[in-house]
């Protein structure tokens, strides 16, 4: 397990915690968000992530801001798991680069919907003017249905959970109220 910095007064709002929580909230398979246990197990159980050993409890501390300085190997493994540049987790990207990463995340989330994928794939190969016409038609339908011209931004990730009485996050250290153990989520 990597050694992190002690929690500072504003650590719960740390850029790393916010970005990790955003990824957990948005980047997951259809059904339910990943749990800390699932991500830690996937990363620790696969050589694909560079032999990093990550525990559910440490991941919870990163997400709730108790630890803010993970090792570069942990950051690389998390970035690879969520398919984002490590600079996004580090906060090393310019605002426009970070926005581009988040735009790609929103695109991937939208592509989870089978119907959205079908519409997008059917437009492949059509001339640009036909694709523009389709965009106009979709915009007209959105107006008729009183929807905003563009799909809404995904909601801000929830604030990290407050540490439990033992200071390790929620009761099981997963950072989730029920630990995700009883509802079958990943």
TrEMBL record:
Which spans does this entry mark as compositional bias, Pro residues? Answer: 148-164
Instruction: Name the residue ranges with Gly residues bias.
Output: 166-186
Q: Name one Pfam family in it.
A: HTH_3
* Chain residue ranges for the region called Disordered: 143-186
Q: Which residues form the HTH cro/C1-type domain?
A: 54-89
Q: Which domain of life is it from?
A: Bacteria
InterPro entries recorded for this chain? Cro/C1-type_HTH, Lambda_DNA-bd_dom_sf
Q: Which Gene3D superfamilies match?
A: lambda repressor-like DNA-binding domains
Please give the CDD domains that the UniProt record associates with this protein: HTH_XRE
SUPFAM superfamilies, per the entry:
lambda repressor-like DNA-binding domains (SSF47413)
Q: Under which name does UniProt file this protein?
A: HTH cro/C1-type domain-containing protein
């Amino acid at each position: 397990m990597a050694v992190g910095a002690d929690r500072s007064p504003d650590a719960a709002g740390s850029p790393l915690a916010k970005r990790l929580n955003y990824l957990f909230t948005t980047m997951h398979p259809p059904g339910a968000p990943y749990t800390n246990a699932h991500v830690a197990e996937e990363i620790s159980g696969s050589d694909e992530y560079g032999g990093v050993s990550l525990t559910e409890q440490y991941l919870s501390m990163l997400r709730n801001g108790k630890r803010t300085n993970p090792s570069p190997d942990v950051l690389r493994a998390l970035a690879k798991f969520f398919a984002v540049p490590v600079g996004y987790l580090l906060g090393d990207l310019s605002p426009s680069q970070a926005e581009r990463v988040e735009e790609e995340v929103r695109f991937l989330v939208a592509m989870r919907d089978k119907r959205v994928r079908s519409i997008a794939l059917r437009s492949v190969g059509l001339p640009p003017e036909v694709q523009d016409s389709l965009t106009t038609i979709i915009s007209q339908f959105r107006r008729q249905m009183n929807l905003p011209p563009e799909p809404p931004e995904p909601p801000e990730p929830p604030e990290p959970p407050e540490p439990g009485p033992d200071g390790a996050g929620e009761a099981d250290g997963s950072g989730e109220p029920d630990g995700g153990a009883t509802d079958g989520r990943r």
